[in-house]
Amino acid sequence: MKENGNPYKPEIATVEDTWYETYGDRCIKTLKVVLDDEKARESWGHRPGQCAMIGVLGVGESMISISCSPTEGKFLRFSVMRMGKVTQALHELEPGDKMTVRGPYGNSFPVEEWKGKNILTIGGGIGQAPLRPIIEYVKANRGDYGKLTLIYGARTSGDLCFKGEFEGLNACSDINYHLSIDVQEEGWPHYVGFVPSLLMDVNPSPENTIAITCGPPIMIRFVLENLKKLNFADEQIYTTLENRMKCGFGKCGRCNVGGLYVCKDGPVFSYDTLKNVPEAFA
Amino acid sequence: MKAINSILIPQFLDALARETAVLAPVKNGGDVYFRPWQPGAEIQWEQNSLLPPKNALFPQTEVLYKYELQGQDGEIHEENPGAEPQIIFGLRNCDLQSINLLDKTFLSGDYVDPFYQARRKNTVLIVFNCHQPQLTCFCTSLGVDPQGGEGADLVLYELEREPAVKSVMLYETGRELGMEAKTGKGEEILKKYRDFFSDFGKKPRPFTSCTLHFKTEGLAEKLRKMFEHPIWADISRRCLACGVCTYICPTCHCFDIQGKNAGDQGYKYRCWDSCMFSDYTLMAGGHDPRPTKRERFRNRFLHKLAYFMERYGEFLCTGCGRCLAKCPANIDISYVVKKVKEAEINAR
Fold first, then answer.
1. B65 touching A, CB under 8 A?
2. Domain count, chain A
3. Could you tell me if residue B185 is left (phi over 0), alpha (psi between -120 and 50 degrees) or otherwise beta?
4. Taking CB atoms and an 8 Å limit, are A251 and B113 in contact across chains?
5. What is the pLDDT of residues A49-85, one digit of tens each?
6. Domains of chain B, residue spans
7. Which residues in A lie closer than 8 A to residue B107 (C-beta atoms)?
8. Which of residues A105, A134, A154 is at a domain's end?
9. Shared domain check, A122 and A226
10. How confident is the model at residue A1 (pLDDT cuts 50, 70, 90)?
11. ipTM
């Protein structure tokens, strides 16, 4: 029988920096976090697409996707939408405050398998958070990948995350980004409409391309339809799922979609797998 | 082969309990429970316990770690998952198989649950073979041999040709019970307490048969095609979502993790949870992937009869019959299986 420590016990981490990505009722705050324990920090080693159970002692913990690539450094980033008790407590954290982190959990985007391919990310709202590590990973290993195309939309320009990071992208070779908002705003130079229609407008070629989409379920549904119209094969399409989780490693039983545990078998799934899974998009 | 006279069992348990905690099925207010053995207690041989001995390995609540709060900061104190040695005496083969299934969940995969592991390692299992099922039993339908003893350290059984235990006289004169070691731990007990045992040549009394019976061939495969079938709405309609089926189930392992604070101290604990409860999958943003009884009910049966099979190759049910005996709405897993087998699959 193998032995491991207590996987329920989190690491204590220090918040290094925080900033708001968006404001309003469903505001999103990014926390840049460093694990206190040096050994834990060195052995952490997450991969793009993985999640962590983060929280505040005495309040609770929530599963949040890690929104940075391991290529960025020995820190973690989480972009958290304020929703309930735990995310409220996370929003109250200031630089220097302590929080809890355990993980990393789940599978990851198969970025090694994708070497030599074009990468197309299609995000909506907070769904850009799990996509960001792919973008950063591809940027850090630029020679290993083909064209990188970002499609990203939100309700309003104020609801877009990581805004400051897009400007610099066009300077890189073979990286393009396309932004959209639902309704025209004064001075908005990009697309107006929903993400699935922006996808059709950009009209990416499926040839040697992997498409990854994250966002609200309704957006994912139409993006999948449109990717099929653009002749993407099921194996070329990836998405991530989220469900309520407690343990994070396949014991507590609640995050299943069909016979798969999102925490362990996911959160990354190819559409080829998910199309046969009941309630995957419930 | 060894045998022990039933009259000597209390003394044998007294001797075991002097060194190790012993849990045994005793009567309490009309029902049978696994309780710490105490001199003078009386073993219940005839009916299975109201609750399985799951609690001894996977307690209903269990502290995972403790913490101290210092303003926004805090300190975490490891909770040692060590467990005292224990002997579970007289569990039935259905509950024994449920422990084999809990082992799959908690001890396999990338993560081992250290709390369960510590208890499991320090637990000796003495199974009591059944020769006569209760009316709600259907272990044989799920491939459980009521006299199999798979995973047990010691097996205790009734012997052939002894009259059924009915009269007070028999209790007083006692009857011989066979005992066989299945593991090294079991051998040790037989050796250490050899004065209680005699050599005996009689065969185990055969198992009669379950009155409740169904075939499971092709069940998981058929269920996979029945996700949207109307039977889920039909059968779940009378479910009260009370969760008793999950609470008394020997194989249900789902749990919640919560924290409890008192001043600047606190602890994180896990507790049994039920997939039948409305907030089980409810997310903070208000979205619930299983919003009604129909989806929750369907998930419970699919987990037992299809999903666990896909992951671990076995049904997550051992046919102990507790859920159908205790359901206030008379929902019966054997009826669900019958409906599934009768259901026509619309080839849409």
1. yes
2. 3
3. alpha
4. yes
5. 999 999 999 999 999 999 999 999 999 999 999 999 9
6. 2-342
7. 1
8. A105
9. yes
10. low
11. 0.91
Answer with the one of A199, A214, A232 that is the final residue of a domain. A232
Interchain contact, B311 vs A259, CB within 8 Å:
yes
C-alpha B213/C-alpha A219 separation (Å) is 48
Mutation target vs A (from B112, B258, B308; most A CBs, 10 A cutoff): B112
Say if residues A166 and A180 touch (Cβ distance below 8 Å).
Answer: no
Average pLDDT, chain B: 91
Would you call B290 an interface residue with chain A, using a CB distance cutoff of 8 Å? yes
Whether A5 is covered by a domain: the verdict is no
Q: Of A171, A48, A35, A172, whose CA–CA distance to A114 is shortest? A: A48
Grouping H, G, I as helix, E, B as strand and the rest as coil, residue A250 is: coil
Check B117 against A1: CB less than 8 A apart: yes
Do the domain assignments include residue A83? Answer: yes
Q: Round to whole Å and give the CA distance between B11 and B39.
A: 8
Contacts of A262 in chain B (CB under 8 A): none
Question: Within this chain, do residues A141 and A204 fall inside the same structural domain, yes or no?
Answer: yes
Residues A236, A210 contacting (CB under 8 angstroms): yes
Range of the domain at A35: 11-105
Mutation to test the A interface, candidates B68, B105, B113, B304, most A Cβ within 10 Å: B113
- Do A193 and A145 fall within a single domain? yes
> Which of A93, A249, A279 shows the shortest C-beta gap to B111?
A249
Contact list, A8 vs chain B (CB under 8 Å): 64-65, 257, 268, 270
